[in-house]
Design brief:
The protein is of the alpha+beta class. It is 23% helix and 30% strand. The chain has 8 helices and 15 strands. Strands 1, 2, 3, 4, 5, 6, 7 and 8 form an 8-stranded antiparallel sheet that branches. A 5-stranded mixed beta barrel has the order 9-11-12-14-13. A hairpin with a 5-residue loop joins strand 14 and strand 15. The longest helix has 31 residues. The radius of gyration is 30 Å and the shape is elongated.
C-alpha cells in the first residue's frame, strides 16, 4: 500500500492530470492535421500499389526505326490531355494474358500485327455499362527487325496503363508509337517516351499517373457526361443556334467545274451564339452556310438547329460558314435537342437537353 497521504495524491493529480490531457489534445491535433493534409497520392514508396508486371528496359519508342507514317503518329500525343481530346474512350489498367502474331496482310507493306488479349484490372475512365473482364486489340508493330531489337508490342504477362479508343465495341490502343505506360516488376512506371510530360512518371509508382488521370477527369466533368461535345468545344469552333430562312442556291465554283464538286448555300438567321470561335467569330445577324448536294435536305426550311460551324473561303469574296453532319442537332419547340445524324454526333450524350441547359454546361 502507498504511504502517500490523500491530500498529497490530490495535489499530484491536480498538476499531472491537466498536463496529461493537454499532451493528449496536442497529439490528437497533430495526428488529425497530418492526416488532413495528407496528399491524395502519398509518398511513392508507400503507394506502389499491388500491380506488378515484367522487368522493364527503360528504352524510348522514338529510338525505334520506323517509316514516315509511324513518325507522324508520334506527334499527336505529348501530354495526358492529348489522349482525352483525341477520341479516347477508356483508360484502363490491364495485364496481357495472350499475344499472338498475325499473318501479314501485305507482304511488302505490313510491318507485322499482333492480337493481344487484355485482362482489365481497373476501368479508370470510360467504363461501359456491361464492362468486359477481358478485351482483345490488334496492335501494329514498330521495329523488331532483329530478335534483340526493341518493339512497341505489349508483352505477354506485362502490366500496362492503356489509353484506348473504341468503335462499335472494338478497342484499339492509342499513342503506342510515342508512349507506352508499362508497370515493371516493382510496381514502378515507365513511359518509353521522350516527351517531358510523360517522362515525369518514369521510375515512379504507377499510382501517381492514375491519380493524375482521375484528377484530370474530376476537373473536366464534361468529359464523362458528353466527351464528344467536350472535344469539339476544345477545338474552338463557334457554337450557334440558328433558324433556316433561305432556300438552297448554287455557289459558283472557284475552279473549273470538272475539278470542283458543286456546292450550295442557304441563309441562316443567328438566334444565339452560345460560344464564339478562337479564330473566327460569328458577329452578324445572318450567315451563309455551304454544303454539298447530298446534304441539301438535311436542314429543313424554317427549322431551328444547334450547330458548330467553321469559316470557309470559296474564293468569291463572300464570307461562308461550313457545317459537319455529326455536329448538328435539331431544336424542338420546347428547346430540347436531338442529333440530326446519330453516328458519332457531338450532341449524342446531350439528347433531350434544352439549349439553355447546353449553355449552362459550357459555363
Amino acid at each position: 500500500m502507498s504511504n502517500e497521504s490523500p491530500k498529497k495524491k490530490s495535489k499530484l493529480l491536480t498538476v499531472v492530470l491537466p498536463l496529461f490531457l493537454v499532451l493528449v489534445v496536442i497529439a490528437g491535433a497533430l495526428y488529425a492535421t497530418q492526416n488532413y493534409w495528407k496528399p491524395l497520392i502519398g509518398p511513392e514508396k508507400e503507394q506502389t500499389g499491388d500491380i506488378r508486371g515484367l522487368a522493364v528496359k527503360n528504352e524510348l519508342l522514338s529510338d525505334i526505326p520506323g517509316d514516315q507514317a509511324a513518325m507522324m503518329s508520334r506527334i499527336a500525343f505529348m501530354n495526358l490531355s492529348d489522349f482525352f481530346y483525341n477520341e479516347m474512350s477508356a483508360f484502363v489498367v490491364a495485364r496481357v494474358t495472350q499475344a499472338v502474331e498475325l499473318p501479314a496482310a501485305d507482304a511488302e507493306f505490313d510491318p507485322g500485327r499482333v492480337q493481344v488479349t487484355l485482362e482489365v484490372l481497373d476501368w479508370v475512365f470510360g467504363k461501359p455499362e456491361n464492362a468486359p473482364v477481358s478485351i482483345t486489340i490488334i496492335q501494329n508493330r514498330l521495329g523488331g527487325c532483329t530478335l534483340e531489337e526493341q518493339t512497341n508490342l505489349l508483352r505477354q504477362g506485362g502490366a500496362y496503363l492503356l489509353p484506348l479508343a473504341e468503335y462499335e465495341g472494338d478497342y484499339w490502343l492509342m499513342g503506342d508509337f510515342d508512349v507506352l505506360f508499362e508497370v515493371d516488376n516493382q510496381g514502378m512506371l515507365y513511359s518509353h517516351s521522350d516527351m517531358e510530360a510523360f517522362k515525369a512518371y518514369d521510375g515512379k509508382a504507377y499510382t501517381l499517373l492514375l491519380g493524375d488521370v482521375r484528377m484530370y477527369i474530376q476537373n473536366n466533368p464534361l468529359l464523362q457526361t458528353a466527351p464528344r461535345f467536350a472535344r469539339v468545344l476544345r477545338e474552338g469552333t463557334p457554337l450557334i443556334e440558328v433558324t433556316v430562312t433561305g432556300e438552297a442556291v448554287s455557289v459558283p465554283p472557284k475552279a473549273p467545274e470538272s475539278f470542283e464538286v458543286e456546292q450550295f448555300s442557304r441563309q441562316l438567321k443567328v438566334e444565339r451564339v452560345l460560344r464564339q470561335g478562337k479564330d473566327k467569330s460569328v458577329d452578324t445577324a445572318t450567315i451563309d452556310l455551304v454544303f454539298y448536294k447530298e446534304e441539301a435536305d438535311l436542314l429543313q426550311q424554317g427549322g431551328r438547329y444547334l450547330m458548330f460551324v467553321s469559316w470557309v473561303d470559296l474564293g468569291d469574296g463572300n464570307p461562308y460558314y461550313q457545317m459537319e453532319l455529326n455536329r448538328i442537332a435539331a431544336v424542338a419547340a420546347d428547346g430540347t435537342i436531338t442529333p440530326v445524324v446519330q453516328d458519332g454526333n457531338a450532341f449524342h450524350n446531350l439528347t433531350g437537353k434544352t439549349v439553355d441547359q447546353v449553355q449552362e454546361l459550357i459555363k
